[in-house]
Design brief:
The structure is a homodimer. By secondary structure, chain A is α/β, with parallel strands linked by helices. Chain A folds into two domains: about 1-110 and about 295-383, Isopropylmalate Dehydrogenase (3-Layer(aba) Sandwich); about 125-285, 3-Layer(aba) Sandwich (Isopropylmalate Dehydrogenase). Chain A has helices at about 15-35, 45-55, 60-65, 90-95, 95-105, 170-195, 220-235, 250-260, 270-285, 325-340, 345-360, 370-380; strands at about 5-10, 35-40, 70-75, 110-115, 135-140, 145-155, 160-170, 200, 205-210, 210-215, 240-250, 265-270, 295, 305. In chain A, the strands form three sheets. Chain A has a ten-stranded mixed sheet with strand order 2-1-3-14-13-4-5-12-10-11, with helices on both faces. Chain A has a two-stranded antiparallel sheet with strand order 6-7. In chain A, helix 1 runs parallel beside helix 12, helix 8 runs parallel beside helix 9 (about 270-285) and helix 10 runs antiparallel to helix 11. Chain A is globular, with a radius of gyration of 21 Å. The interface between A and B is large, with 63 and 63 residues. The structure holds 3-isopropylmalic acid (IPM) (2 copies). One 3-isopropylmalic acid sits at the interface of chains A and B. Chains A, B: This is Isocitrate/isopropylmalate dehydrogenase family protein. Chains A, B: Its cofactor is Mg(2+); Mn(2+). Chains A, B: Keywords: Manganese, Metal-binding, NAD, Oxidoreductase. Chains A, B: Pfam families: Iso_dh.
């Protein structure tokens, strides 16, 4: 088998700090199990790189990264040095560009963000059933509201008109919905193998072991809302074992707070998925623990990208305060993904997930620094 | 002074039930204070009307309604008779059309939804500070994502492309932002008169008694995000007494769950405001208590429309189970609005609000029917 190669892009702010802990855990696992795994660091902090080179990444960045099997990204976004307002020059649109460029350039058309309230994680909801939150939000990651088409007419005048076009294709709609149904099946199978079950009811009264909830705003954004709904109804016929459900995005956000434990798999558009995943992240304990991945499940030549849901948090950067838990869950998910080709790597991913979850459960509410948490988990891995 | 005239449109589902209680309360207040107030009922349940006339409202509905000073609307949305699937024929796009038609036709460019966790309301968040939630979400209600422009190319084929255009004008942006700042000032003044104060910090370290938080997704939806941001910065110069803040919509949703008590006035686009107001409604106790209004503050010839945030809830319709509290808070807000011309009506609005709030506080968690709650509040009003 070929060596599995990871491109590590620490990025900005707390990115390098949490990535350092992930790399230590990877190294521990590699040494322990003799994994055929290697990684290369690409230090392209967007601000510094931009100041020096006038661009947020090298021009051939995507070409460089494409040679790897996966990208482990810390965080992007750097407003500039906090103490020098004159250098507050780097808008998000530049410092975040690599993120969107990678998603697009590598056609990472799935953004997957699981939300499970694990023991030890902060519980924001009053209802005790929050402990049962266990959903997977699947966000369409390649088009929709994020196509960056539009412009500003009569810019800066009182008569200005700004437009933003949303573009949805049936092809991308079909594949994300089908992916959602496949994940629902996988989750049901995983539950069965863990001796757990969940029950969902279909509209016509049958019971199923998994569910896909489609989120749109079809009552106001009709064109793609209708296309999504039609695609969903069509594809659902291939999955009679999966219950289906439909929510409008506003109601979905409400129900995420009122009864999040009722959701299994949720499929949403790029922007609505962005919103729902941030909400789901809070419901599962907050940004400190929420993993995320941008997957291309169809083209083996395109690397998938793994990043925590959180951003670069410039306000706490450089102080060793950031919680690396989200990054470590993200690294675990990456190993699981890479493990499709190499079972030893998949097993290491599971081991990392279990170690991070155990550390979280045992240290609920304790105040520990980035490195301290990383060390505790590495120590646990080398037991 | 002229008689104040209200058009009452009960609508669908639970709409007529909750509206009946609102009308009883209005009648109680009218009789008690000899208010110069009258109302006319427009029974246009969308499904029945559609079956009989092939349209969701009479063709001249807007012309009829325009003669009134305000519209009190129950709820719209009717999937058809629950027990006759063959008649499940009325899509949301038809049964909800009157709502969007009124907002557009009467240029109700502000949608205002206050969120305050009142004593007795259900608290979904674990943190006790939830008791301090007191925000006003102001949604741009006239354009943006809701312009209904777009279409479906190669409809129904694998090559389909659906587009949806978002159109934002500087004029509508300016007026909604300015409205937000004015409301922030009003709220600060109201707090002072009630002996309460809140403190917000500006970016440059000053303290203010109110705040406006602008929500956009400017890092991904750049064109209007930038225009909103520029308008916000420009207009804020006229309100040095109001602190300013900016959130991205995904982060805003997260913070609504993590620390909603930190918000004062929130200004957002049509779709993002739709999402944020549903979330805000849950934070203040759920749909059973959340009022809403669609205002035209600039053109006295255009009636504003007052509707609860909730929908028509066909699943519980006709059973007398719906909580009329949201509708009654909405009616109170309507009287307050109409009271700009007639102080006696404004006072009645305040009286209604207080009675509904007192009823809520005293009956926390009790199971009462629609009519029972309405009666308790009418009784309180006639004391
Ligand atoms: C940084 C931003 C462009 C990005 C997005 O909107 O996709 C982020 O919010 C995310 O969810 O990964
Ligand atoms: C019914 C629907 C069209 C409406 C909206 O999206 O504006 C509703 O959600 C609301 O918030 O009033």
């Amino acid at each position: 088998a070929q060596t599995t190669r990871i491109a590590v892009t620490p990025g900005d702010g707390i990115g390098p700090e949490v990535v350092a802990e992930a790399v230590r855990c990877l190294e521990t696992l590699r040494a322990k199990h003799g994994l055929d795994l290697e990684w290369t660091r690409f230090p392209w902090p967007s601000h510094a790189w931009h100041e020096e080179h006038g661009e947020s990444m090298p021009a051939d960045a995507l070409a460089q990264l494409q040679k790897y099997d996966a990208i482990l990204l810390g965080a992007l976004g750097d407003p500039g040095p906090m103490d020098d307002p004159d250098r507050y020059l780097l808008p998000d649109s530049i410092s975040l560009a690599p993120l969107l460029d990678m998603r697009k350039g590598f056609d990472q058309w799935v953004c997957e963000r699981p939300a499970r309230l694990l023991p030890g994680a902060r519980q924001y909801l009053a209802d005790e059933r929050a402990k049962d939150i266990d959903m997977l939000v699947i966000r369409e990651n390649s088009e929709g509201e994020y196509v960056s088409q539009g412009g500003r007419l009569r810019k800066g005048t009182p008569d200005e008109v700004a437009t933003q076009m949303e573009v949805f294709t049936r092809k991308a709609t079909d594949r994300i919905i089908r992916y959602g149904f496949e994940q629902a099946r996988n989750r049901a199978a995983d539950r069965v193998s863990e001796g757990r079950t969940r029950t969902f009811r279909t509209l016509d009264g049958r019971t199923c072991e998994s569910q896909v909830c489609l989120v749109t705003k079809r009552n106001a954004l009709r064109y793609w809302g209708d296309m999504y709904t039609e695609a969903f109804e069509e594809i659902s016929k291939d999955y009679p074992d999966v219950a289906t459900h439909h929510e409008l995005v506003d109601a979905a956000c409400m129900k995420f707070v009122q009864s999040p434990w009722a959701f299994d798999v949720v499929v949403a558009s790029n922007l609505q998925g962005d919103i729902l995943t941030d909400l789901a992240a809070v419901l599962s304990g907050g940004m400190g623990v929420a993993p995320s991945c941008n997957l291309n499940p169809t083209d083996p030549d395109m690397p998938s990208m793994f990043e925590p849901t959180h951003g670069s948090a410039p306000d706490i950067a450089g102080q060793g305060l950031a919680d690396p838990t989200a990054m470590l869950f993200t690294a675990a998910r990456m190993l699981e993904w890479l493990g499709r080709k190499d079972p030893a790597i998949a097993a290491a991913g599971k081991e990392l997930f279990d170690a991070v979850a155990a550390d979280l459960a045992e240290n609920s509410g304790s105040r520990r620094g980035t490195h301290e948490i990383g060390s505790a988990i590495c120590e646990r891995l080398s037991r």
